[in-house]
Amino acid sequence: MVTIRDIAKETGVSPTTVSNVIHGISGRVSAETIQNINDAIKRLGYVPNMSARSLVSSSSKVIGFVNHVIVKDDRNFMEDPFHSATIGAIESTLRENGYYLMLRTVETAEELVTFLQRWNMDGLFFTGIFKDKFYDSMVGLNIPVVLIDSYIHTPHFCNVGLEDFNGSCDATRYLISKGHRRIGFASPNIKDGGVLQERFLGYKAALAEVAIPFDRSIVFQQEMDLESCRKVCDEICKHPDITGLVVSADIMAAGIMTGLRERGIRVPEDISVIGFDDISLAQLVTPPLTTIHQDMNLKGRLAVDFMLQLLAGKTLQDTEVTLSTRLIERESVRQL
Amino acid sequence: MVTIRDIAKETGVSPTTVSNVIHGISGRVSAETIQNINDAIKRLGYVPNMSARSLVSSSSKVIGFVNHVIVKDDRNFMEDPFHSATIGAIESTLRENGYYLMLRTVETAEELVTFLQRWNMDGLFFTGIFKDKFYDSMVGLNIPVVLIDSYIHTPHFCNVGLEDFNGSCDATRYLISKGHRRIGFASPNIKDGGVLQERFLGYKAALAEVAIPFDRSIVFQQEMDLESCRKVCDEICKHPDITGLVVSADIMAAGIMTGLRERGIRVPEDISVIGFDDISLAQLVTPPLTTIHQDMNLKGRLAVDFMLQLLAGKTLQDTEVTLSTRLIERESVRQL
DNA sequence: TGTCATTAGTTGAACGTTCAACGTTGCCAA
DNA sequence: TTGGCAACGTTGAACGTTCAACTAATGACA
Question: Which of A306, B7, B46, B64 would be A158's cystine partner, CB 3.0–4.6 Å?
Answer without folding.
Answer: A306
